[in-house]
Amino acid sequence: MTALPTRKHEDWRYSDHVALGEAWPLRLPAARTIDVAVGETRAVTERLGSADLSGDDVVVTVGDGGRLTLAVAQTRAADAVTMQLYTLAVGADAHVRIDILNSGSRFGRIALDVTLGARATFELGGLILGRGDQTLEIVTTLRHVAPGAVSRQTVRVVVNDRATGSFLGKVAVAREGQQTDAAQSVKALLLSRTATANARPELEIFADDVKCAHGATVGELDRQALFYLASRGVGPAEATALLTEAFLGDAGLPEMLYEEAIAWLRA
Description:
Largest sheet: 7 strands, parallel
């Protein structure tokens, strides 16, 4: 996209358009690649730290029968603007697992555009952690263009103060995508009444033999659970931390990213 996005663009509706305007046009490096050969297994970790540029475009190719695990930690400085795009082509019978921790930047957006081959499997585990005036997003498009592919997306959002956390997830099933099995689950936890969470699961289905499901919830900590912990002598701050840590665990992130999320929570 060369023109500055506006709120008329559905995928940019909840973005920080002030930050976008200040950063536009983006001066991103040329697209880089991650390649997994036929039958190969790779594990890749990407850390988007304070010294990074605004982000980049990453083209990921996974050959037939290949396996890729990709961990992405976006923890840039609070005044940064980050837009990161991963475009994936996943071959037949391949398996991809992506785990994302999105907790840095004034505006931090991580987008995935995934095309799945026959009987391919894609899994996403995502955490969005925001405080202050941050606006953080995970945006996904899953393209089921061949038979028998499976996709699972699990995203958890925790926002405090005046932060905004958004998950926009689209599953597009082509006519050739028969026997698709796709599911999305997004849950958001508001730690203050001034925080905002947006969830937009979307299904676009042209095949007639599919199983697609999505669910989205936004709420506060369970008051009954807080009362139970208080009755057992657990203080309010510790009770809030315990329940929030359990909520984060639902995303199933690897230990490294989960520990970073817990550290963010305790900061």
